[in-house]
């Protein structure tokens, strides 16, 4: 079976006759009939119900056309993608990403993209998530990789790349260990956040996107956190918690990296369904992105899913 076989069957179904379909496919009617007969023999089913006045799809034929159209669509997308690769020998992309996430995600993104598009230069701009959102609005970058929610959602579009679990971290020597609840999945233990109401917290600064989410999680647990230090970087928060300076929130991403000679905190899942947020690629609505930028955005979900 070839792609042209699918196109033949679809065209016959659309035209309702072999002669009209043959003319549309620029093939003789005997050749078209022979192609259909060969295909039906190969598949072991009749694709059409034939009569002296009309021809229509059988139930097997309807399924063939339905599934075949998906194959044709994917084939068209593949050809289009290959053409894009051939055309994009040179170009420039301006991408925003926060300093913290760049150290985790660029190693996943850049090598794979470079192998396909070695001639595309990527100008990487690092900053806070809020600053990067503003840069998208001002056309200072083509797009940014940042967590949701957005401040200016009405002016922006986004595609979610993954869901990010927010964990609660405590020092290994913390008395809170006795209150943790084991996970049946041998995963991180669970913590009732209200048990930490009297602890000293290490928080991100108010201008950081997570600040409001952290405050809301504490409020839902019935307390306002006693904030000992405010920082701008998750890794620094993680390190200070590990050496016993306090407790705090961290994204699950930090657990992927083990630092030698640095004590690791105990990571806990929070008994709150809102302790999760989306990480997305964000770009300006109604903006004509370059071919390179659009293809990069299409490429991102594949990289994150793998």
Question: Mind explaining what this structure looks like?
Answer:
- It is a single chain.
- 41% of the residues lie in helices and 24% in strands.
- The protein starts with a helix and ends with a helix.
- The mean pLDDT is 87.
- By secondary structure, the protein is an alpha/beta fold.
- The protein has nine helices and twelve strands.
Largest β-sheet summary: 8 strands, mixed
CATH topology category name of the largest domain: D-Maltodextrin-Binding Protein, domain 2
Shape: elongated
- What is the typical, i.e. mean, pLDDT? 87
Protein name: HTH lysR-type domain-containing protein
Family: Belongs to the LysR transcriptional regulatory family.
Keywords: DNA-binding, Transcription, Transcription regulation
Domain HTH lysR-type: 1-58
Structural topology:
Blueprint (H helix, E strand, L loop, with lengths): L2 H13 L2 H7 L4 H15 L4 E3 L4 E3 L1 H29 L3 E8 H18 L3 E8 L1 H9 L5 E5 L8 E15 L19 E2 L8 E5 L5 H11 L5 E6 L2 H9 L5 E4 L14 E5 L5 E9 L6 H15 L1
Parallel strand pairs: 3-4, 3-5, 7-11, 8-9
Antiparallel strand pairs: 1-2, 5-12, 6-10, 6-11, 6-12
Provide tags for this entry.
306 residues, alpha/beta, D-Maltodextrin-Binding Protein, domain 2, 3 domains, eight-stranded mixed beta sheet, two-stranded antiparallel ribbon, 9 helices, 24% strand, HTH lysR-type domain-containing protein, LysR_HTH_N
Concise account of the structure shown:
This protein is of the alpha/beta class and 306 residues long.
């Amino acid at each position: 079976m070839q792609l042209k076989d699918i196109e033949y069957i679809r065209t016959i179904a659309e035209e309702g006759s072999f002669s009209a379909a043959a003319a549309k496919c620029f093939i003789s009617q005997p050749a078209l009939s022979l192609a259909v007969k060969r295909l039906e023999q190969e598949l072991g089913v009749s694709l059409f119900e034939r009569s002296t006045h009309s021809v229509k799809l059988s139930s097997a034929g309807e399924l063939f056309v339905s599934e075949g159209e998906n194959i044709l669509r994917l084939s068209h997308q593949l050809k289009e993608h290959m053409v894009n690769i051939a055309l994009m020998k040179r170009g420039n992309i301006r991408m925003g990403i926060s300093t913290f996430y760049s150290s985790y995600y660029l190693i996943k993104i850049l090598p794979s993209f470079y192998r396909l598009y070695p001639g595309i230069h990527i100008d990487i701009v690092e900053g806070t998530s809020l600053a990067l959102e503003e840069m998208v609005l001002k056309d200072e970058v083509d797009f940014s990789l940042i967590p949701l929610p957005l401040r200016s959602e009405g002016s922006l579009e986004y595609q979610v790349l993954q869901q990010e679990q927010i964990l609660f971290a405590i020092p290994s020597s913390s008395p809170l260990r006795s209150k943790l609840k084991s996970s049946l999945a041998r995963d991180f233990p669970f913590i009732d956040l209200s048990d930490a109401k009297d602890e000293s917290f290490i928080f991100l600064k108010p201008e950081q996107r997570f600040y409001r989410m952290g405050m809301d999680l504490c409020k839902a647990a019935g307390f306002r956190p006693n904030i000992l230090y405010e920082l701008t970087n998750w890794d620094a928060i993680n390190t200070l918690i590990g050496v016993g300076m306090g407790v705090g929130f961290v994204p699950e991403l930090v657990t992927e990296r083990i630092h030698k000679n640095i004590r690791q905190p105990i990571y806990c899942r929070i008994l709150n369904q809102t302790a999760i947020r989306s990480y997305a690629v964000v770009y300006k609505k109604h903006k004509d992105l370059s071919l390179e930028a659009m293809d990069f955005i299409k490429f991102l979900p594949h990289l994150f899913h793998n």
